[in-house]
Amino acid sequence: MKRLVTSLLLVAGSLAVGQPVQAAPACTGQIVPNHSFERGSTGWTAGPRTVVVADQARPAHTGRAYAALAGLDVTRTEVVRTTVTVPAGCNVTLGFWARVSTTETARGDYLNVGLSITGTPPKTLFSLTFDHSQQWQQHTSVAGVSATERTATVSFAASETAGNGVTAFDVDDVTLTLS
Question: Which residues face 84 on adjacent strands?
Answer without folding.
Answer: 152
